[in-house]
Design the sequence.
């Protein structure tokens, strides 16, 4: 796979043009583009601008309802439940997290859940919205079922990430990870390369360990059984029940507390129905936010400065890699692979967008 | 190691007598006994009545201050920060969770943090206090540093469990797990048996994989380096940074939001200084609690009924094993090993307690 670096501003303007052509307003296109490009800038290619293709298909096949408008079906000073009526995930996500942030600023705490939604990008984007405002932010989502529960062989939970962000110096703490041992995106990368998966990631339709990426992905898509293991693997000895437990917490916050579809009931027929959660906690609930931030920053520094394992040069605290990836990409551009460029070109042809006028001439 | 089964009521009366002799009031002894015996009844022997010996030593060496009284240093309708002034962990834990529960009943949400405390038993006990009241309960604690961060070789975080409980039928969802791949208690069990540890649990003072339980425990006690790996092991390939991330969330809630000692600063000299967090969320923030409970119970049933992996008879939902262990022990008694009985006997001799009059004649 060949990669081409595209400057941030260049990619942003192109993305805005495409999403407007898809039928989103300029403001909506800005939110969607911001979520996708933040992911690319953080080095999380799987959830970046390449998702444009997925959204294009989802609009075409009616999975994303362009004409629907979300509805706040329950609300208190601390909470809300929103029905997204199968609209775009990023738009309701941005709205819901802002609502949680407003509640946390006014009341100390905000917890908003969303049902009947679609893919919303990286969970971390929403958690970071809160930490940008001096709050602790959390977000979880469910997804198409890909995680087999401990001792099971049918995927019943999604990748079910838990994202957590909190103000700190010199940069915010930022944690965003699926509760599976790896994401489906990682399995797709091995499939594209035609390489066997590492041991301990997946099981096949018979419930046996497998390293066959193509088979695993087909089984997930066709709901034939098998899938990705929870963080901690397949046995209690290595903590499988723990990853499964964290996946449950993400699921409870997203789909149970919104009375929405659990992962095993999403993505059936032409509907998605993904559910999300958005939490903001004001650190002033616990005293002086600046004192808390300073205390936290000291601990993070102690972690980074603690002795390294043999052969390891650094201990990272969560969010460091993203900050470094951001700085690197701001200078060097965002790497986009030829397959994605080809898919984008096809979309542009349909919409009569002159891709070259945005991205320049790329010989892919 | 030989085990002897002791009936629940018998053990309860014995424990009450011992803690009263240690200097706790009848009410305090009841709380401490309830936390310890709940752990035994759930089948978590490491955090059960055998901890009586640890508490006895901690009172003797001044780690637990018998004459201190906790102090609420910050409070809002949704939150509180409590300084336990190095008092007993269970007592402040019970008080703090009840405060969180009261806030969640009145305001929808309660989040109480505690600093300068001691070992408080299983985190799950406090989470369950909330689910017993129809609320979602969470509790986290830090502890003596035992977890090495990803790519590190010095223990910097504690076992840092996250416990989560929520009302469901036919029994509550109950999740309580360390964010390390295993607890120190498990390593101690291998040490007592003289067996090598499974691969992937621990690293030694040089930061190299190790299966030598005795060496690991000595290193942790003497802060010489090495320790237990995060859930997900030592490499990012198996999700090490995820377990480390969940450990961070437990740490943030407990020690950062209380302005208390982080794990790496606890248990230095004669003080402990462990920190805890207690969260209660009222499901009525999201609509009808009964509808949410029914929705959740359906999903749990679907999980249990989903296809099993080869060679596995059951898929457990979290809390099932504890309910079954409880029922079994109510009939058959709590298994206590001879080493613990010997240690209890020594305590009884010092306090002039006639152990036989409580437990009957046990030939251990």
Sequence:
């Amino acid at each position: 796979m060949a990669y081409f670096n595209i400057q941030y501003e260049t990619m942003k303007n192109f993305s805005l043009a495409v999403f407007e052509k898809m039928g989103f307003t300029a403001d909506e296109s800005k939110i969607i583009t911001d979520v996708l490009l933040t992911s690319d800038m953080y080095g999380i290619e799987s959830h970046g601008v390449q998702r444009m293709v997925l959204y294009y298909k989802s609009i075409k096949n009616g999975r994303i309802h362009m004409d629907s408008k979300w509805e706040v079906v329950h609300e208190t000073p601390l909470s809300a439940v929103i029905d997204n009526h199968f609209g775009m995930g990023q738009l309701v996500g941005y709205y819901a997290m802002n609502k949680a942030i407003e509640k946390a600023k006014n009341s100390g705490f905000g917890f908003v859940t969303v049902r009947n939604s679609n893919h919303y990008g990286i969970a971390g984007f929403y958690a970071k919205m809160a930490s940008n405002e001096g709050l602790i932010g959390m977000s979880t989502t469910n997804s198409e079922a890909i995680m087999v529960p401990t001792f099971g062989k049918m995927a019943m939970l999604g990748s079910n990430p838990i994202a957590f962000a909190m103000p700190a110096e010199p940069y915010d703490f930022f944690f965003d990870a699926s509760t599976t041992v790896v994401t489906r995106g990682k399995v797709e990368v091995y499939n594209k390369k035609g390489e066997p998966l590492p041991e301990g990631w997946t099981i096949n339709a018979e419930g046996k360990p497998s390293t066959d990426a193509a088979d695993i992905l087909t089984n997930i898509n066709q709901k034939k059984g098998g899938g990705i293991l929870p963080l901690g693997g397949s046995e209690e000895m290595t903590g499988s029940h723990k990853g499964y437990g964290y996946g449950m917490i993400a699921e409870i916050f997203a789909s149970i507390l919104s009375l929405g579809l659990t992962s095993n009931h999403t993505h059936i027929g032409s509907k998605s129905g993904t559910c999300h959660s958005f939490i903001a906690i004001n650190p002033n609930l616990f005293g002086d936010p600046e004192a808390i931030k300073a205390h936290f920053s000291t601990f993070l520094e102690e972690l980074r400065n603690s002795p390294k394992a043999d052969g390891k040069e650094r201990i990272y605290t969560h969010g460091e890699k993203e900050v470094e990836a951001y700085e690197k990409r701001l200078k060097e551009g965002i790497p986009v692979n030829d397959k994605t460029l080809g898919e984008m070109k096809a979309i542009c042809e349909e919409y009569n967008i002159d891709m070259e006028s945005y991205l320049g001439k790329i010989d892919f």
Observations:
- Chain B touches chain A through 82 residues (CB under 8 Å).
- Chain B has a mean pLDDT of 96.
- The first helix of chain B runs from residue 8 to 22.
